[in-house]
Write the C-alpha coordinates for this entry.
Amino acid sequence: MKLNKYYDDLKDSYLFHTVAVKTAEYAKKNPDKKIIKLGIGDVTRPLPAACVRAMKEACDEQLTVAGFRGYGPYEGFDFLRGAISDYYAGRGTKVGAHEIYVSDGAKSDIGNILDLFDRGNTVLVPDPVYPVYVDTNVMCGRKVIYAESNEENGFLPAPDDSVSADLIYICSPNNPTGAAYTRDALAEWVKYARSRGAIILYDAAYEAFITDGALARSIYEIDGARECAIEFCSFSKNAGFTGERCGYCVLPDELAAEGKKLADMWLRRQSTRYNGAPYIIQRGAAAAFTAEGQAQIKENLDYYKKNADMIGKCLDSLGIYYTGGVNSPYIWLKCPDDMGSWEFFDLLLNECQVVGTPGEGFGKCGKGFFRLTSFNTHENTAEAVERIKARFGK
Protein backbone atom coordinates (compact mmCIF):
# COMPACT_ATOMS: atom_id res chain seq x y z
CA MET A 1 0.00 0.00 0.00
CA LYS A 2 1.27 3.47 -0.91
CA LEU A 3 -0.06 6.89 0.09
CA ASN A 4 -0.67 9.81 -2.25
CA LYS A 5 2.82 11.28 -2.50
CA TYR A 6 1.50 14.65 -3.65
CA TYR A 7 0.25 15.43 -0.14
CA ASP A 8 3.90 15.97 0.74
CA ASP A 9 3.83 19.02 -1.54
CA LEU A 10 1.07 20.73 0.46
CA LYS A 11 1.76 23.37 3.05
CA ASP A 12 1.86 21.99 6.58
CA SER A 13 -1.43 23.60 7.56
CA TYR A 14 -4.48 25.14 5.95
CA LEU A 15 -4.24 28.93 6.30
CA PHE A 16 -7.46 29.45 8.24
CA HIS A 17 -6.62 26.61 10.63
CA THR A 18 -3.35 28.35 11.50
CA VAL A 19 -5.18 31.63 12.14
CA ALA A 20 -7.71 29.82 14.36
CA VAL A 21 -4.99 28.12 16.39
CA LYS A 22 -3.05 31.33 17.00
CA THR A 23 -6.25 33.13 17.98
CA ALA A 24 -7.28 30.35 20.37
CA GLU A 25 -3.85 30.39 22.02
CA TYR A 26 -4.08 34.13 22.59
CA ALA A 27 -7.62 33.84 23.98
CA LYS A 28 -6.53 31.14 26.43
CA LYS A 29 -3.71 33.31 27.75
CA ASN A 30 -5.88 36.46 27.83
CA PRO A 31 -9.37 35.41 28.94
CA ASP A 32 -10.27 38.97 29.92
CA LYS A 33 -9.70 40.37 26.41
CA LYS A 34 -12.55 40.76 23.90
CA ILE A 35 -11.35 39.48 20.54
CA ILE A 36 -13.08 40.77 17.40
CA LYS A 37 -12.80 38.44 14.42
CA LEU A 38 -12.65 40.01 10.98
CA GLY A 39 -10.72 37.13 9.48
CA ILE A 40 -12.65 34.16 8.12
CA GLY A 41 -15.41 34.79 5.60
CA ASP A 42 -18.22 33.29 7.66
CA VAL A 43 -21.47 35.24 7.80
CA THR A 44 -23.09 36.41 11.04
CA ARG A 45 -26.58 37.56 10.04
CA PRO A 46 -29.55 35.19 10.53
CA LEU A 47 -30.85 33.24 7.56
CA PRO A 48 -33.55 34.95 5.48
CA ALA A 49 -36.93 34.23 7.05
CA ALA A 50 -38.31 33.09 3.68
CA CYS A 51 -35.63 30.41 3.46
CA VAL A 52 -36.17 29.19 7.01
CA ARG A 53 -39.92 28.99 6.51
CA ALA A 54 -39.44 27.00 3.30
CA MET A 55 -37.13 24.56 5.08
CA LYS A 56 -39.63 24.14 7.93
CA GLU A 57 -42.40 23.41 5.45
CA ALA A 58 -40.13 20.91 3.70
CA CYS A 59 -39.47 19.21 7.04
CA ASP A 60 -43.22 18.90 7.62
CA GLU A 61 -43.59 17.31 4.20
CA GLN A 62 -41.39 14.44 5.38
CA LEU A 63 -44.09 13.47 7.90
CA THR A 64 -46.47 12.48 5.12
CA VAL A 65 -46.41 9.64 2.64
CA ALA A 66 -47.17 12.00 -0.24
CA GLY A 67 -44.58 14.59 0.79
CA PHE A 68 -41.71 12.29 1.75
CA ARG A 69 -38.57 12.60 -0.43
CA GLY A 70 -35.73 10.11 -0.52
CA TYR A 71 -32.92 10.22 -3.05
CA GLY A 72 -33.24 13.25 -5.28
CA PRO A 73 -31.94 13.93 -8.79
CA TYR A 74 -28.16 14.07 -9.00
CA GLU A 75 -28.42 17.37 -10.85
CA GLY A 76 -30.67 18.95 -8.23
CA PHE A 77 -34.44 19.37 -8.07
CA ASP A 78 -36.11 21.11 -10.99
CA PHE A 79 -37.73 23.72 -8.75
CA LEU A 80 -34.31 25.01 -7.67
CA ARG A 81 -32.62 24.71 -11.05
CA GLY A 82 -35.50 26.64 -12.61
CA ALA A 83 -35.28 29.36 -9.96
CA ILE A 84 -31.55 29.75 -10.59
CA SER A 85 -32.09 29.95 -14.34
CA ASP A 86 -34.72 32.65 -13.81
CA TYR A 87 -32.27 34.53 -11.58
CA TYR A 88 -29.77 34.66 -14.44
CA ALA A 89 -32.48 35.64 -16.91
CA GLY A 90 -33.51 38.52 -14.65
CA ARG A 91 -30.04 39.95 -15.23
CA GLY A 92 -30.22 39.34 -18.97
CA THR A 93 -27.94 36.29 -18.92
CA LYS A 94 -28.79 33.07 -20.73
CA VAL A 95 -28.37 29.94 -18.58
CA GLY A 96 -30.75 27.04 -19.06
CA ALA A 97 -32.09 25.14 -16.06
CA HIS A 98 -30.71 21.89 -17.54
CA GLU A 99 -27.20 23.44 -17.53
CA ILE A 100 -27.27 23.97 -13.74
CA TYR A 101 -26.01 21.35 -11.29
CA VAL A 102 -26.82 21.76 -7.59
CA SER A 103 -24.38 20.66 -4.89
CA ASP A 104 -23.44 21.16 -1.25
CA GLY A 105 -21.33 24.22 -2.04
CA ALA A 106 -18.98 25.92 -4.46
CA LYS A 107 -15.91 24.78 -2.51
CA SER A 108 -16.82 21.14 -3.12
CA ASP A 109 -17.51 21.72 -6.80
CA ILE A 110 -14.26 23.61 -7.35
CA GLY A 111 -12.33 20.62 -6.03
CA ASN A 112 -14.48 17.89 -7.52
CA ILE A 113 -14.58 19.35 -11.04
CA LEU A 114 -10.92 18.41 -11.38
CA ASP A 115 -11.96 14.76 -11.83
CA LEU A 116 -12.87 15.74 -15.41
CA PHE A 117 -9.36 16.81 -16.36
CA ASP A 118 -6.10 14.97 -16.94
CA ARG A 119 -3.35 15.26 -14.37
CA GLY A 120 -1.01 16.54 -17.06
CA ASN A 121 -2.91 19.80 -17.53
CA THR A 122 -1.20 23.02 -16.46
CA VAL A 123 -3.21 25.16 -14.05
CA LEU A 124 -3.05 28.96 -13.94
CA VAL A 125 -4.18 30.70 -10.76
CA PRO A 126 -3.93 34.32 -9.65
CA ASP A 127 -1.53 35.13 -6.83
CA PRO A 128 -2.69 35.93 -4.16
CA VAL A 129 -5.27 33.17 -4.35
CA TYR A 130 -7.93 31.29 -2.38
CA PRO A 131 -5.87 28.30 -1.13
CA VAL A 132 -8.42 25.69 -2.28
CA TYR A 133 -7.61 26.37 -5.95
CA VAL A 134 -3.97 25.50 -5.40
CA ASP A 135 -4.27 22.71 -2.84
CA THR A 136 -6.83 20.65 -4.75
CA ASN A 137 -4.53 20.62 -7.79
CA VAL A 138 -1.41 19.92 -5.75
CA MET A 139 -3.21 16.90 -4.27
CA CYS A 140 -3.61 15.61 -7.84
CA GLY A 141 -0.03 16.30 -8.83
CA ARG A 142 -0.78 18.99 -11.39
CA LYS A 143 1.61 21.75 -12.36
CA VAL A 144 0.42 25.08 -10.98
CA ILE A 145 1.65 28.40 -12.36
CA TYR A 146 0.72 31.89 -11.22
CA ALA A 147 -0.56 35.15 -12.66
CA GLU A 148 0.85 37.82 -10.41
CA SER A 149 -1.55 40.44 -9.08
CA ASN A 150 -0.26 43.49 -7.28
CA GLU A 151 -0.69 47.22 -6.75
CA GLU A 152 0.42 47.94 -10.32
CA ASN A 153 -2.41 45.97 -11.91
CA GLY A 154 -4.93 46.69 -9.17
CA PHE A 155 -4.81 43.03 -8.16
CA LEU A 156 -6.52 42.12 -11.43
CA PRO A 157 -3.97 40.36 -13.64
CA ALA A 158 -4.52 40.32 -17.40
CA PRO A 159 -3.70 37.38 -19.70
CA ASP A 160 -0.07 36.96 -20.71
CA ASP A 161 0.29 35.63 -24.24
CA SER A 162 3.68 34.16 -23.38
CA VAL A 163 2.08 31.85 -20.80
CA SER A 164 0.30 28.63 -21.74
CA ALA A 165 -2.30 27.04 -19.47
CA ASP A 166 -5.10 24.47 -19.73
CA LEU A 167 -7.19 25.36 -16.67
CA ILE A 168 -7.59 28.98 -15.55
CA TYR A 169 -9.05 30.04 -12.21
CA ILE A 170 -10.77 33.42 -11.99
CA CYS A 171 -12.62 34.70 -8.93
CA SER A 172 -14.47 38.01 -9.29
CA PRO A 173 -15.08 39.76 -6.96
CA ASN A 174 -11.86 38.22 -5.80
CA ASN A 175 -11.10 36.38 -2.60
CA PRO A 176 -8.90 37.61 -0.95
CA THR A 177 -8.35 40.99 -2.65
CA GLY A 178 -11.94 42.14 -3.22
CA ALA A 179 -11.00 43.40 -6.70
CA ALA A 180 -13.52 42.76 -9.50
CA TYR A 181 -13.14 42.53 -13.27
CA THR A 182 -14.99 44.73 -15.74
CA ARG A 183 -16.67 43.02 -18.66
CA ASP A 184 -13.96 44.29 -21.01
CA ALA A 185 -11.23 42.79 -18.83
CA LEU A 186 -13.05 39.46 -18.60
CA ALA A 187 -13.47 39.47 -22.37
CA GLU A 188 -9.67 39.39 -22.66
CA TRP A 189 -9.55 36.25 -20.51
CA VAL A 190 -12.26 34.59 -22.58
CA LYS A 191 -10.38 35.43 -25.77
CA TYR A 192 -7.17 34.04 -24.24
CA ALA A 193 -8.84 30.79 -23.12
CA ARG A 194 -10.54 30.18 -26.46
CA SER A 195 -7.32 30.77 -28.39
CA ARG A 196 -5.65 28.00 -26.37
CA GLY A 197 -8.50 25.56 -25.93
CA ALA A 198 -8.36 26.21 -22.19
CA ILE A 199 -11.18 26.06 -19.65
CA ILE A 200 -11.92 28.92 -17.25
CA LEU A 201 -13.08 27.85 -13.79
CA TYR A 202 -14.99 30.97 -12.75
CA ASP A 203 -15.82 31.47 -9.07
CA ALA A 204 -18.78 33.86 -8.77
CA ALA A 205 -19.47 33.23 -5.08
CA TYR A 206 -19.55 36.98 -4.30
CA GLU A 207 -21.49 38.24 -7.34
CA ALA A 208 -24.40 39.45 -5.19
CA PHE A 209 -22.15 42.13 -3.65
CA ILE A 210 -21.62 43.86 -7.00
CA THR A 211 -23.38 47.21 -7.39
CA ASP A 212 -21.23 48.74 -10.15
CA GLY A 213 -22.95 48.25 -13.50
CA ALA A 214 -19.60 48.11 -15.32
CA LEU A 215 -18.66 44.89 -13.51
CA ALA A 216 -19.70 41.42 -14.60
CA ARG A 217 -21.75 39.26 -12.22
CA SER A 218 -21.38 36.20 -14.43
CA ILE A 219 -18.76 35.05 -16.91
CA TYR A 220 -21.64 34.30 -19.28
CA GLU A 221 -22.21 38.01 -19.77
CA ILE A 222 -19.16 37.76 -22.04
CA ASP A 223 -19.49 36.62 -25.65
CA GLY A 224 -17.83 33.25 -26.17
CA ALA A 225 -17.72 32.32 -22.50
CA ARG A 226 -20.27 29.54 -22.93
CA GLU A 227 -17.67 27.72 -25.04
CA CYS A 228 -14.83 27.91 -22.51
CA ALA A 229 -16.07 28.51 -18.94
CA ILE A 230 -17.61 26.67 -16.00
CA GLU A 231 -19.19 28.95 -13.41
CA PHE A 232 -19.44 28.15 -9.70
CA CYS A 233 -21.73 29.92 -7.28
CA SER A 234 -22.83 29.55 -3.68
CA PHE A 235 -25.68 30.40 -1.34
CA SER A 236 -23.20 30.91 1.51
CA LYS A 237 -22.43 34.60 1.15
CA ASN A 238 -25.74 35.85 -0.26
CA ALA A 239 -28.33 33.77 1.63
CA GLY A 240 -26.03 32.95 4.56
CA PHE A 241 -25.99 29.19 3.92
CA THR A 242 -22.46 28.62 5.25
CA GLY A 243 -23.86 26.01 7.66
CA GLU A 244 -26.66 24.70 5.45
CA ARG A 245 -24.38 23.97 2.48
CA CYS A 246 -25.79 24.60 -0.97
CA GLY A 247 -24.27 25.81 -4.20
CA TYR A 248 -24.26 25.10 -7.91
CA CYS A 249 -22.17 25.12 -11.03
CA VAL A 250 -23.07 25.81 -14.65
CA LEU A 251 -21.81 23.72 -17.56
CA PRO A 252 -23.20 25.19 -20.82
CA ASP A 253 -24.30 23.01 -23.73
CA GLU A 254 -21.51 24.45 -25.90
CA LEU A 255 -18.74 23.41 -23.51
CA ALA A 256 -16.89 20.43 -24.97
CA ALA A 257 -13.39 19.03 -25.40
CA GLU A 258 -12.00 16.09 -27.35
CA GLY A 259 -15.46 15.42 -28.70
CA LYS A 260 -17.05 15.10 -25.26
CA LYS A 261 -19.55 17.39 -23.54
CA LEU A 262 -18.23 18.33 -20.13
CA ALA A 263 -21.77 18.39 -18.75
CA ASP A 264 -22.14 14.68 -19.55
CA MET A 265 -18.86 13.92 -17.82
CA TRP A 266 -19.86 15.97 -14.77
CA LEU A 267 -23.19 14.18 -14.43
CA ARG A 268 -21.39 10.85 -14.71
CA ARG A 269 -19.00 11.94 -11.98
CA GLN A 270 -21.73 13.24 -9.69
CA SER A 271 -23.99 10.23 -10.11
CA THR A 272 -21.08 7.98 -9.14
CA ARG A 273 -19.66 9.94 -6.20
CA TYR A 274 -22.48 12.12 -4.92
CA ASN A 275 -26.12 11.70 -3.91
CA GLY A 276 -27.19 15.32 -4.13
CA ALA A 277 -27.90 18.20 -1.76
CA PRO A 278 -30.74 17.51 0.73
CA TYR A 279 -34.28 18.23 -0.44
CA ILE A 280 -34.97 20.39 2.63
CA ILE A 281 -31.93 22.56 1.95
CA GLN A 282 -32.81 22.91 -1.73
CA ARG A 283 -36.29 24.11 -0.78
CA GLY A 284 -34.69 26.78 1.41
CA ALA A 285 -32.32 27.76 -1.40
CA ALA A 286 -35.18 28.11 -3.88
CA ALA A 287 -36.95 30.48 -1.47
CA ALA A 288 -33.91 32.78 -1.72
CA PHE A 289 -35.08 33.69 -5.23
CA THR A 290 -38.61 34.70 -4.25
CA ALA A 291 -39.41 38.41 -3.97
CA GLU A 292 -39.47 38.08 -0.18
CA GLY A 293 -36.22 36.14 -0.12
CA GLN A 294 -34.43 38.64 -2.37
CA ALA A 295 -35.59 41.55 -0.20
CA GLN A 296 -34.29 39.84 2.94
CA ILE A 297 -31.00 38.97 1.26
CA LYS A 298 -30.59 42.59 0.17
CA GLU A 299 -31.10 43.68 3.78
CA ASN A 300 -28.33 41.36 4.93
CA LEU A 301 -26.00 42.37 2.10
CA ASP A 302 -26.58 46.05 2.88
CA TYR A 303 -25.67 45.29 6.49
CA TYR A 304 -22.32 43.81 5.47
CA LYS A 305 -21.73 46.61 2.97
CA LYS A 306 -22.10 49.12 5.81
CA ASN A 307 -19.42 47.25 7.73
CA ALA A 308 -17.14 47.31 4.68
CA ASP A 309 -17.75 51.03 4.34
CA MET A 310 -16.74 51.58 7.99
CA ILE A 311 -13.49 49.68 7.46
CA GLY A 312 -12.77 51.49 4.19
CA LYS A 313 -13.31 54.93 5.74
CA CYS A 314 -11.00 53.97 8.60
CA LEU A 315 -8.23 53.00 6.18
CA ASP A 316 -8.84 56.15 4.13
CA SER A 317 -8.38 58.27 7.26
CA LEU A 318 -5.11 56.48 8.01
CA GLY A 319 -3.82 56.77 4.44
CA ILE A 320 -3.59 53.00 4.04
CA TYR A 321 -3.84 51.55 0.52
CA TYR A 322 -6.49 48.88 -0.05
CA THR A 323 -8.64 47.19 -2.64
CA GLY A 324 -12.16 45.81 -2.19
CA GLY A 325 -14.65 47.07 0.34
CA VAL A 326 -16.94 48.13 -2.53
CA ASN A 327 -18.59 45.41 -4.63
CA SER A 328 -17.01 42.92 -2.23
CA PRO A 329 -17.19 41.83 1.42
CA TYR A 330 -13.39 41.74 1.60
CA ILE A 331 -10.91 44.54 2.27
CA TRP A 332 -7.33 43.87 1.16
CA LEU A 333 -4.97 46.35 2.78
CA LYS A 334 -1.29 47.11 2.61
CA CYS A 335 0.28 46.55 6.01
CA PRO A 336 1.38 49.87 7.53
CA ASP A 337 5.00 50.70 8.31
CA ASP A 338 6.24 48.05 5.84
CA MET A 339 5.27 45.27 8.20
CA GLY A 340 5.05 41.67 7.06
CA SER A 341 1.67 39.95 6.93
CA TRP A 342 2.18 37.71 9.95
CA GLU A 343 3.92 40.50 11.82
CA PHE A 344 0.83 42.66 11.31
CA PHE A 345 -1.42 39.75 12.32
CA ASP A 346 0.44 39.41 15.62
CA LEU A 347 0.35 43.15 16.24
CA LEU A 348 -3.38 43.45 15.56
CA LEU A 349 -4.13 40.46 17.77
CA ASN A 350 -1.87 41.43 20.67
CA GLU A 351 -2.40 45.19 20.69
CA CYS A 352 -5.89 45.63 19.23
CA GLN A 353 -7.43 42.19 19.82
CA VAL A 354 -8.60 42.20 16.19
CA VAL A 355 -8.17 39.12 14.00
CA GLY A 356 -7.68 39.26 10.23
CA THR A 357 -5.97 37.02 7.69
CA PRO A 358 -2.31 37.45 6.68
CA GLY A 359 -1.99 38.06 2.97
CA GLU A 360 1.13 35.93 2.77
CA GLY A 361 -1.06 32.90 3.40
CA PHE A 362 -2.70 33.49 0.01
CA GLY A 363 0.57 33.45 -1.94
CA LYS A 364 3.88 35.25 -2.36
CA CYS A 365 2.18 38.32 -3.87
CA GLY A 366 0.24 38.63 -0.63
CA LYS A 367 3.38 39.44 1.34
CA GLY A 368 2.94 42.72 3.14
CA PHE A 369 -0.86 42.63 2.69
CA PHE A 370 -3.74 41.68 4.94
CA ARG A 371 -7.40 40.70 4.53
CA LEU A 372 -10.27 41.96 6.68
CA THR A 373 -13.89 40.91 6.18
CA SER A 374 -17.18 42.71 6.70
CA PHE A 375 -18.89 39.63 8.14
CA ASN A 376 -19.43 40.76 11.71
CA THR A 377 -21.89 42.94 13.60
CA HIS A 378 -22.04 46.72 13.19
CA GLU A 379 -21.08 47.08 16.85
CA ASN A 380 -18.02 44.82 16.65
CA THR A 381 -16.88 46.31 13.36
CA ALA A 382 -17.17 49.86 14.73
CA GLU A 383 -15.21 48.85 17.84
CA ALA A 384 -12.51 47.17 15.76
CA VAL A 385 -12.22 50.28 13.59
CA GLU A 386 -11.77 52.50 16.65
CA ARG A 387 -9.07 50.22 18.04
CA ILE A 388 -7.20 50.32 14.72
CA LYS A 389 -7.53 54.10 14.52
CA ALA A 390 -6.22 54.47 18.06
CA ARG A 391 -3.19 52.32 17.29
CA PHE A 392 -2.24 53.70 13.85
CA GLY A 393 -3.59 57.25 13.93
CA LYS A 394 -0.99 59.99 13.74
Q: What stands out?
A: The chain has two domains: 5-47+292-392, 49-290. The chain is about 35% helix and 15% strand. The radius of gyration is 21 Å. The domain at 49-290 is CATH 3.40.640.10 (Aspartate Aminotransferase; domain 2).
